[in-house]
Every structure is written in structure tokens, then in C-alpha cells.
Amino acid sequence: MSYPFQIKTYEEYQRAYKRSVDDPEGFWADVASSFSWRKRWNKVLDWNFKEPHVEWFSGSKLNITENCLDRHLLNLGNKPAIIWEPNDPEEHHRVLTYRNLYDKVCQFSHVLKNNGVKKGDRVCIYMGMIPELAIAVLACARIGAIHSVIFGGFSAQSIADRLQDAKAEYIVTCDGAFRGAKDIPLKNVIDDALIACPFVKRVIVCTRTRTPVSMIKGRDVWWEDEIKKVETLGLNHFEAEEMDAEDELFILYTSGSTGKPKGVVHTCGGYMVFTAYSFVNVFQYTPGDVHFCTADIGWITGHSYILYGPLASGATTLMFEGVPTWPDAGRLWQIVDKYKVNVLYTAPTAIRSLMGFGLEPFEGTDLSSLKVLGTVGEPINEEAWHWYDEHVGKKRCPIVDTWWQTETGGILISNMAGVTPAKPAHATLPLPGVQPILVDENGVEVTGNPAAGNLCIKAPWPSIIRTTYGDHERCRQTYFSTYENLYFTGDGALRDADGNYRITGRVDDVLNVSGHRIGTAEVENAINMHAGVVESAVVGYPHDIKGQGIYAYVICQDMHTDESHMRLDILQTVSRIIGPIAKPDKIQFVSGLPKTRSGKIMRRILRKIAEGEKNNLGDTTTLLDPSVVEEIAEGKL
Ligand code: WT7
Fold it and tell me: Does 379 share its domain with 526?
């Protein structure tokens, strides 16, 4: 496999960047030409950010799995596509060659079809990190069904909300999942979710943990039984569905500043082109390299850089079922040595948590196979950057700090390993095809360097969000209405004298906890579900390992309740409603919240108090009752 679009030098980067701005259609047509299309496009790009309407490669036909599988069979058929490392290091690992993966995806495509799934149907996938998850995702893409993967940590309630929003009639799940010392009963959670989703027709259950499950007659079937039927019938190849470049490939739910998660929609053609383009360039992937992204496929990072980007590039991608700290904090380093990993891509929160274990976990490992390191999900502090550089990369591996979002589909701002310069804590420069600008609160561009402002993008790149499922107006409102004719990221950023971007974090009411996006309103709604709660306000505060922690101010009905019990009950409620990832780190009981005369909570003040800056609260004169601020600032946790 060769990548005609791979950039090798800084000069090439500058040339490619310039061309991508001067002639975006010519630029992306050239990149797209190295993929396999059943029919070429009539027009490369058609767009406006008003509606918004974005169409890439219109009129073209393809199936993304033919690009991820079929076209590699001839030359890479016996090469590993997926290496799977189980949770328990004592269990056997698995290697799926491109040929194996192709066979299994074809088989499961037959299973989906036999169970009634058709092009355009939504299929919810709720599984642990096992190869069957990848197979299920790709089989959906092969038959033209829209997959919606839900992270294994979400609660039954969250799943039900998503199933209803997507009107998903089909589910693929497992009996359970292993994650570190835990055993998560996935099928039981699905059963709870389905009480509120009678429209679900079929649940396909893959065996992993042997956790007892209840299989409902007429609705639930075993993955293994369904595969056997296909084998008995001798069904092998599955002819991929012909898709339009703009047909929907998947929905992935993500949190925003309002209570309800949004179903971000990505489409087939542009998403494929951009994930492969960014994968090859940012990580400087070389055929034969082993790429290890530690994310879960339940998040966009896993979609784009465990599955689609690497597989569309004929790469070897490593899928890890477990967690970095189990059975011990050396697990990632042992995996790197075991498979001679060349690229390691992880989150700052994982790095910070591993830093806490000191250097002992590195003993007996050599990590000499590593060539490139990457980070994603949140700003990386300089201390963590240097630790990663020194102890993992041994000061010989470039670190790419990749900034992007669920909505962007792929990496937009990042250095390219060894090609463009790195700068600690900076995502640095935009990829070709990406035109960032900084604007002030009035939407006026902040020009010159250095600069600070809200980060927007001027023109579409191929994997930009197309809509929010079932509610296009919400997509317009959220991303395209704050500033006219710009895509607004929700992030603030600085630009240094050399034009390098440094992302400072969200400027809206979205928290980033251990690299997971959580809306403050979502957490507040969950807390308010508790019968004893009158009202709550949630803000983020700096947390050494998680990046941001969740701080909740809560007003209770009965101010004399036992606070420690109440705290536990609130945590339990949030776990039930959203999932354990949204549990507040701190809960402070208060008798009132600082509100303006118009009834708006002044979060700025609450954030300051949560940060411990109690003496510098700024102007409080517009508050309805300034005395609550004193009470809160003096209050104990
Ligand atoms: C938000 C998007 C995209 C992969 C995982 C997260 C923050 C992401 C960086 C980075 C600073 C970053 C932003 C962004 N973020 N990468 N390299 N430096 N901040 O996806 O859940 O959609 O969250 O993560 O705040 O808006 P997501």
C-alpha cells in the first residue's frame, strides 16, 4: 500500500496547505482518487454554512468497507488488520488478517440481513472492546445500515434516550464486558433500556463473559447461533451495498450545552477520505507499522483511529479490551513490547494517571519499537507532555497533539509526526484543508499573532458533521448560528507568534472530564431527578488527573437531611440516569444559588468558588441576593 497523499517534509506541508486553500476541489479530488469508488463524483464540493448544507463528492458511489477490506485482499490478505489484546493478559490474544476480517464481516452482514436489517436502518451497538464489535460496525457499513455505537459505560436510561432518538430497531450487544477488575452486564443493561423501547425488533447477543442473561423469545438471538446458520447455508461473500457518498454512515451521540445529547451524523465518502488522509499524515503511518490507539470504539477517536482511518489505509490496528492500570500500571508498556507497537495514541488523562505510579511500571520493558506518540481529547499540560516524551518516547519519538471533535470526524489541528514542528501543550498547525480562525465575542476576526479568541473554521473539510440526527435545526443552531458563515467549535484558543494554536478548553457549558464530554445541564437534570433535590448547578474545576472534575451545588428540600447519605444517593442517581462517568467529584449543599434578577445562574461565580478563588469573585452587584455568595464561599464540602 502506498499513500500518494502522504506529506513528507515541512515544505510539502506548506505547499499542500496552500493548494488546499486556493483550490480545495482540486486538492481533495486528488486525495480521493487513491480510494476505490464504484462511480466517480460529478462535483467535489457544494456547501453553505447558512442552512448548513455540505455535500462532498456528490454523485459518487462507494462502500467504505470495500475500501477497508476488499481492496486490501490481494496484497495484504495475510497481513494483520486487527490485533486484539484481551483484558486478562493470561488469555490468548487474537490476530485477524485482512482476509479473516473480510470473511467475518461478510458473514455478519448475512446475519444482519437475515434478521431483517436493511439499508438506512439504525443499528445500536453496545459491546465491549472485542473484535466482534469491529465486525458488527463494519457489517452495518457493508449493508448500508447506520450504526450508532454506545459506550459500555452508559446507563440503561441513556441507552433508551438514544434508541428513541435514533428510532433504532436493532441492537447488537454482548452478555457482558470485561474491563479491568470489573465485569459489566451489558445485556442486562440493554434489557432495562428496552422496557422503554418496545419498538426494538431484534437483539443479537455475542458471548464474551458468560454472565447469565435472559433471552426473550422472538426478540433475542445469539450471535454464534446466527453465524452457524450462515455457515450451514455456505454463505461467504456478501456483496456490499452501493452507497452514495452522502448516505449516512453512522450516528454518534455527544453532549452539548443543553440537556439532551445530540446524534452527530457522518456520511460515507468524506468521512472515509478525511480519516484516512489524517491518519496517514498525522501519525506518518508506514506500511507494516502497528498502530495502537487506546480509546474505546464507543467514542469518535475509536471510530476514526482504531477502525476506519487505519483500515482504509491497510494498516495494522491494535484493539485493547482492558484498561491501562490493570492488572498493573505497566500494562500499556507490556502491550507495546508484546506487539512491537510503533504508534501509541492516548489521552492526557491516562498519561497523568500513569505518572502517579512512578517509573517502576516501566521496569523490564524497553519500548524501543515506538516511533510516534499521540495525545487527544483535552489540553495536555507541559508536565505530562514532558513525562510522555521522556519516559515513554525516550526523547526520540515526536508527539502529536491532535485537536478535533466528534463533530469534525477527524483531526483538524495537529503537528505531523517528524514533519512539522511540535510544541509542548500546542496542537500547532491546521491540516491541509482546514481553515481555522479566531473571533472575539462579536464574531470579529482576531488577526495577527499572537492572538486569542473563540475557535471557528471557515470552510468545510470532508468529514464535517452533516446534521444532528432527526433535528437539522439543532445542528444549525449549535454550530452555525453563533457566528455567521462559520463553524463554531465551542473551544477557546490562543495563537502564538508562529501561528501555532493552543486550545484552552470549552467556552460553553460543556465539561471535559478525563477526555469525556459531559454537559453541565445533563448532570444537573440527573441530579434534579432525585426526589430530595430542589435545584442544582454544576460547574467544572481543575482536577489533577481528570483535567476537569465535576462540582455540584445542590439545594435540598430538607436542609436537615443526613448529608453523607444524600451525597451517596445523588451519586447513585446520576449513575442511573447517565452513567458512572458523570458522577460529581464534589457536592456542596447550599440554601440558594447566585442568580441574576432575570433568574439566570451566575456560573462564573460558582466556577471561581469551585476553583478555590473565593476572594476574587468579581462583580456581584447584579445578583438578586448577593448574600448567598458569601454563604456558598464559606460553605464546607
Ligand atoms: C473536545 C471534543 C476528538 C477526540 C476526542 C474528544 C477537547 C480534543 C484536544 C486537544 C485540547 C482537545 C476540545 C474539543 N479536545 N482534543 N488535542 N487539545 N483540547 O472528542 O468528545 O467530541 O470532545 O475535546 O475541547 O472541543 P469530543
Answer: no
| DSSP per-residue string spanning 560-603 | TS-HHHHHHHHHHHHHHHT-GGG--SEEEE-S---BBTTS-B-H
Let me know if residue 446 belongs to a domain: no
Q: Is 276 exposed, middle or buried (0-12, 13-18, 19+ CB in 10 A)?
A: buried
Domain co-membership, 258 together with 343: yes
Domain match, 328 and 191 both: yes
Q: Which atom belonging to ligand 1 lies closest to the Cα atom of 517?
A: 21
pLDDT in tens, 466-489: 999 999 999 999 999 999 999 999
If asked whether residues 525 and 468 sit together in one domain, one would say no
Which pLDDT band holds residue 636 (cuts at 50, 70, 90)? low
Ligand 1 binding residues, C-beta < 6 A: 254, 300-301, 376-379, 401-406, 427, 489-491, 503, 505-506, 512, 517
Instruction: Give yes or no: residues 323 and 427 share one domain.
Output: yes
> 210: closest CA among 171, 156, 174, 180?
174
Using the mean position of ligand 1's atoms as its centre, give its distance from the Cα of residue 108 in Å: 33
Residue whose Cα lies nearest atom 17 of ligand 1: it is: 403
- The answer to whether residues 196 and 161 touch, using CB atoms and an 8 Å cutoff, is no
- The string of pLDDT tens digits covering residues 185-244 is 999 999 999 999 999 999 999 999 999 999 999 999 999 999 999 999 999 999 999 999
Point out the ligand 1 atom lying closest to the alpha carbon of residue 427.
Answer: 17
- Does residue 48 lie in a domain region? yes
Do 523 and 469 belong to one domain? no
The mean per-residue pLDDT over the stretch 49-60 comes to: 98
In which domain, by residue range, is 489 found? 452-506
Q: What is the pTM of this model?
A: 0.97
C-alpha cell at 127: 459491546
- The more confidently predicted of residues 559 and 365 is 365
Q: Can you state the percent helix, strand and coil of the chain, rounding each to 5?
A: 35, 25, 40
Query: In terms of Cα–Cα distance, which of 386, 318, 319, 323 is closest to 350?
Result: 323
**Residue 421 and residue 465 share a domain:** no
pLDDT in tens, 604-630: 999 999 998 888 888 888 888 888 898
Residue 559: pLDDT over 80: no
My answer on whether 619 and 538 are in the same domain is yes
Provide the CATH number for the domain around residue 582.
3.30.300.30
Say yes or no: ipTM exceeds 0.85: yes
Q: 378 CA distance to ligand 1 centroid (A)?
A: 5
